[in-house]
């Protein structure tokens, strides 16, 4: 049985996530680790966070694992704290999912998300119920504490040119989506000499401001505030703040692939490597070429990108959804580090965000989904590979058809009963034409099964 999805174990409270299920997850993870190991546990501000975390911790303690509970903290802060102080980490978060969801994310001792292989070992222990329950006098020790959030902010400040940023005296509006970054990003900005106006920056697991996914329809207040006020920048995080999304000084939403391309442009030097999933913009490829750097593509999924980056010693990496991985900081998506980096780029170039974005290679991107039952997905994929065997394709994840100045990627979702079509082209017309053409082909193939 598969417990872990693309981003940890996710479930609905009271349905999938019950105390006995969660305690067993804790027991399985505890058994996988050696007795006496220290696990760092942190969480986002979801209402169910205490229930979920305590159940998992109970399972861990029963297998002789010690736990340090650092409370509410952004996902990258828990990852950093795990790397520095623990043998393993657990984050209780469902990222951007609605409030009825929660999740358990497992972090290896190096601060990076667990590899699929390691997840399989935990799933195997869970399934066979081969738990190492220790006698009473070897029960693990629970201790609250650890100032993970301050440590995290300090570490970011070590990795950017603070003086340069301070000199610009930026004014920034930030929307933390009532998530974990409420406890870190506004303070980071203050340390960078930024005048901060905050929106939804009180942690609240009901997400009263808006859903915690940083997409345009959820960021209207932020966009209006930036447009009407005299701001240099608008910033938004998702609920657990491993991602960052920007609004330019005119109030325009900047898609994540653009901010990724922007940071790539200023980080990559001759001979460097950038790692990104096959779904990423051609702008990355163009920028890498201009800077003498190389792109290494992976399957979609942040943990895969991070692990590949370690393997190939990449300088930078990330995803189109606002997830940036900056190795000087750590090998995981890091929303606040991405924010500090963009401020540094603005400070060192003296340009505002809209100018910086306009200077990038311009492409149009689109994404749609087509329903497809989970049990049909493999057959459909085989048929797609056959269908496009004559064309220039990349089959690392789904099928990517690459043309002159355009591409289309058709891949099954790992979490939902759908296929996704991603496309990119130089003009809007070409983009629409591509999506329409490949949607028809995909629907016809799905109908065959
Ligand atoms: Mg997230």
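-> sequence recovered:
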């Amino acid at each position: 049985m598969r417990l872990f999805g693309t981003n940890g174990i996710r479930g609905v409270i009271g349905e999938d996530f019950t105390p006995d299920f969660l305690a067993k997850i804790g027991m399985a993870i505890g058994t996988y680790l050696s007795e006496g190991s220290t696990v760092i546990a942190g969480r986002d501000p979801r209402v169910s966070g205490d229930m979920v975390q305590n159940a998992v911790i109970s399972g861990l303690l029963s297998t002789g694992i010690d736990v340090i509970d650092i409370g509410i903290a952004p996902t990258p802060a828990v990852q950093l704290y795990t790397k520095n102080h623990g043998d393993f980490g657990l984050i209780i978060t469902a990222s951007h999912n609605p409030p009825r969801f929660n999740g358990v994310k497992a972090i290896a001792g190096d601060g990076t998300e667990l590899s699929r292989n390691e997840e399989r070992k935990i799933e195997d222990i869970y399934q066979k119920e081969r738990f190492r329950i220790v006698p009473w006098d070897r029960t693990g020790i629970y201790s609250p504490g650890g100032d993970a959030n301050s440590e995290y902010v300090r570490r970011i400040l070590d990795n950017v040119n603070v003086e340069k940023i301070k000199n610009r005296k930026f004014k920034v509006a930030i929307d933390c989506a009532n998530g974990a970054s409420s406890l870190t990003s506004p303070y980071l900005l203050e340390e960078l000499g930024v005048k901060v106006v905050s929106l939804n920056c009180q942690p609240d697991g009901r997400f009263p401001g808006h859903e915690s996914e940083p997409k345009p329809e959820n960021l209207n207040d932020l966009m209006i505030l930036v447009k009407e006020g005299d701001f240099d920048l608008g910033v938004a995080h998702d609920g657990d703040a491993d991602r960052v999304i920007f609004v330019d000084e005119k109030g325009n939403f900047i898609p994540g692939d653009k901010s990724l391309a922007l940071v790539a442009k200023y980080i990559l030097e001759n001979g460097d490597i950038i790692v990104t999933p096959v779904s990423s913009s051609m702008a990355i490829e163009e920028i890498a070429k201009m800077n003498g750097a190389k792109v290494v593509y992976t399957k979609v999924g942040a943990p895969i990108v991070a692990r590949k980056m370690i393997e190939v010693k990449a300088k930078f990496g990330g995803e189109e959804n606002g997830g940036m991985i900056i190795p000087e900081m750590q090998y995981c998506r890091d929303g606040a580090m991405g924010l500090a980096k963009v401020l540094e780029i603005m400070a060192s170039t003296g340009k505002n965000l809209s100018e910086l974005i306009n200077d990038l290679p311009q492409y149009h991107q689109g994404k749609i989904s087509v329903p497809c039952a989970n049990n049909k997905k493999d057959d459909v994929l085989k048929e797609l590979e056959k269908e496009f065997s004559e064309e220039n394709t990349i089959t690392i994840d789904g099928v990517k058809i690459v043309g002159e100045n355009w591409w289309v990627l058709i891949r099954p979702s790992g979490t939902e009963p759908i296929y996704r079509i991603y496309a990119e082209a130089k003009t809007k017309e070409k983009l629409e034409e591509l999506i329409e053409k490949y949607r028809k082909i995909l629907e016809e193939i799905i109908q065959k099964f």
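The chain has three domains: 9-146, 151-358, 364-448.
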